[in-house]
Amino acid sequence: xxxxxxxxxxxxxxxxxxxxxxxxxxxxxxxxxxxxxxxxxxxxxxxxxxxxxxxxxxxxxxxxxxxxxxxxxxxxxxx
Length: 79
Prior knowledge:
By secondary structure, this protein is of the alpha+beta class. It has 2 helices and 5 strands; from the N terminus they run βββββαα.
C-alpha cells in the first residue's frame, strides 16, 4: 500500500482503465483510484489536477464546499 503525503491516507490500489466519460474516479471507502488511460495524452498540469482531485476524494468524498476549499489550499491554481 502507498500513502499519499498530501492527503495522509492509504491508497490500496491505483488502476489505469479505459473510461468513456471520466478522467478519473475514486472509491474513498475502499481507497481505490481509477485513472483514464487517455489522461497520459493530456498536458502535465491536467494530469496533476486529475490525480490530486481524486486523492482529495479520500478526505472529502463529495464535491462539497470542503472539497473545493481543500483543492484551493493545496493547489491554488486548480481552476
